[in-house]
Amino acid sequence: MTEQSPALDNLLTESRTFPPSEEFAARANATPEWYAEADQDREAFWARQAERLHWDTRWSQVLDWSQAPFAKWFTGGKLNVAYNCVDRHVEAGHGDQVAIHWVGEPGDTRDITYAQLKDEVCKAANALTSLGVTANDRVAIQLQMIPEAIVAMLACARIGAMHSVVFGGFSPTALRSRVDDAQAKVVITSDGQYRRGKAAPMKANVDEALAGAESVEKVVVVRRTGDDVPWTQGRDLWWHELVDPQPAEHTPQAFDSEHPLYILYTSGTTGKPKGILHTSGGYLTHVAYTHHAVFDHKPGEDVYWCTADIGWVTGHSYIVYGPLANRVTQVVYEGTPNTPHEGRHWEIIQKYKVSIYYTAPTLIRTFMKWGNDIPAKYDLSSLRVLGSVGEPINPEAWMWYREHIGGNRCPVVDTWWQTETGGIMISPLPGVTHAKPGSAQRPLPGISAKVVDDTGTEVGKGGGGYLVLDKPWPGMLRGIWGDDERYKETYWSRFAEQGFYFAGDGAKYDADGDIWLLGRVDDVMNVSGHRISTTEVESALVSHPTVAEAAVVGATDPTTGQGIVAFVILRGGVAEDEAGGAEAIQALRDHVAKEIGPIAKPRQIMVVPELPKTRSGKIMRRLLRDVAENREIGDVTTLADSSVMDLISSGLKSGK
Ligand code: 6R9
């Protein structure tokens, strides 16, 4: 991205800034000095962060980068991750503190204290051991958001087995390929899950996935819906029959800092999914530190809620490991945000007095679509920090979030990171940063990131290019499971000479040197030789009063190389025949031209009822490209709701 596209300037016309309030700054966990302290001696800074944990044996070396790009952090150190997340809080006298306020979709609830969580994790660890699971074995977990999911992950960590969590919504084929790749010995699942008010089977899908899977010895089934399930004698066991009778005592063993903790597969764009490997000491240090700094979490005071699914890395790092290491009290919600009504999240925040709320832009835009009057009905005054993750947040959504959810009082932190980075890398710090709507702004203290051009040279202020991470960090992936070559090839070959990690995201510096993420580099379109980011056009579209959500793809065009095709969802209350009519569409095209420049005018705009998204909320542009290019629609197995594509296609055919 050496050439300067006028189009890329659009996001940067955003000039509003929000300085932290004095009261917030006075009590903030993070201080402005951290940046300089970390720059001065990065390893010493990370060593101080590692002090947040309990180590059975202290490390002898902070970072060993001698076998780059395979990092070792806190070498010689030994710790038990589950002990750090549970037992030590009980030993420090916080056994009665609620760890999890669990809310089931049908309305049932459970409060689990740290003392109870410790008992559950110990029982589950004993149960896994009784099945012959030992350190370094792999356990696949396909569960919805129920407490057993968290207990199962911590039980694996406690005995040094690696978990591989697979989305509850993933197809049998997707589960099978992950089970085979990791050669999982045990699979933990449930009979079924509640989704949108209905019980959907899980166990039956797991059975389908596991037919002939040779590595799997046992399947442990949590009873949730109570529906009948197929049963394989000798292989299948009920969780309550296996786990409940186990002793609640279990001595945690200290494992090496580099002992593997988990594998998590990223939804690959093509071919085989990548099994991202994370290890113990560095990872836990990274997620505990970032959860403390970015969310300003105060143990014993705050009520935290991250709305992610544990099948996604955000659930691993910011529901399980970071928050529990920091002695959080958190909400875990099983269901969808509009079951039984569109105010469900706000009702939960009001009830539990949630003070820190972390969600995804796609959901924020959905809330916008449902209307301002819904959150307005609830008391959201307990909130004090709002977070966003998963994709670039457009300034309109950021402002809406700040105003309608945060009451113009809560700092909004836009956190950039990836499955591969393990934890948050670029984000404002509440109480420190002057926030800018739509920008993740600055690498955290201890983290180094740069925007570089094709040759790996850092671009200047106002310049755009590729985001790279130029220094190793504790939470970084240690490789791709079973495929060292692919690890080197995917992340380290693009800028091999400089030794940079290639994140695959486009980014830009503004005039102050703040970073703006522009979406995946494969989502950058090339129209008549001009580079235009899909995010940028989407951002322009949603800044129009009739548009709630937009997805933009570059479709092959005989004249311009690529043509811009936009799919838009209208805001609630906007009459579809009016807003979807020829004149309204023309007005939208003109609006984009006005916001970005005539070059960014979409060739085609289609009004649709839904957009195809993965469970982590990412729009699957590949499928929209198929529609835009009149092709047969490709593989939809990783969609959260695979019927969405039918809805879009039939809506378009009926001329809407
Ligand atoms: C945590 C997570 C990683 C990709 C990443 C980027 C996009 C995530 C973002 C963001 C802009 C943010 N992404 N957070 N883009 N601003 N705040 O999402 O992990 O599922 O591995 O996705 O998501 O494109 O490269 P993962």
UniProtKB/TrEMBL annotation:
Q: Name the catalysed reactions.
A: acetate + ATP + CoA = acetyl-CoA + AMP + diphosphate
Asked if the Swiss-Prot or TrEMBL record annotates the protein with the keyword Ligase, the reply is yes
Cofactor(s) named in the record: Mg(2+)
Family named by the database record: Belongs to the ATP-dependent AMP-binding enzyme family.
Gene Ontology MF terms: acetate-CoA ligase activity; AMP binding; ATP binding; metal ion binding
Pfam family name, one: ACAS_N
EC number(s) for this protein?
A: 6.2.1.1
Gene Ontology annotations of biological process type: acetyl-CoA biosynthetic process from acetate
Domain AMP-dependent synthetase/ligase positions: 92-481
Native species: Saccharomonospora amisosensis
Can you tell me which residues bind ATP? 390-392, 414-419, 505, 520, 531
Where does this protein hold Mg(2+)? 542, 544, 547
Function comment? Catalyzes the conversion of acetate into acetyl-CoA (AcCoA), an essential intermediate at the junction of anabolic and catabolic pathways. AcsA undergoes a two-step reaction. In the first half reaction, AcsA combines acetate with ATP to form acetyl-adenylate (AcAMP) intermediate. In the second half reaction, it can then transfer the acetyl group from AcAMP to the sulfhydryl group of CoA, forming the product AcCoA.
Start and end residues of each Acetyl-coenzyme A synthetase N-terminal domain: 33-85
Q: What protein am I looking at?
A: Acetyl-coenzyme A synthetase
For the keyword ATP-binding, the answer is yes
Instruction: Cite the PROSITE patterns for this sequence.
Output: AMP_BINDING
UniProt KW keywords? Acetylation, ATP-binding, Ligase, Magnesium, Metal-binding, Nucleotide-binding
InterPro entries, alphabetized: Ac_CoA_lig (IPR011904), ACAS_N (IPR032387), AMP-bd_C (IPR025110), AMP-bd_C_sf (IPR045851), AMP-binding_CS (IPR020845), AMP-dep_synth/lig_dom (IPR000873), ANL_N_sf (IPR042099)
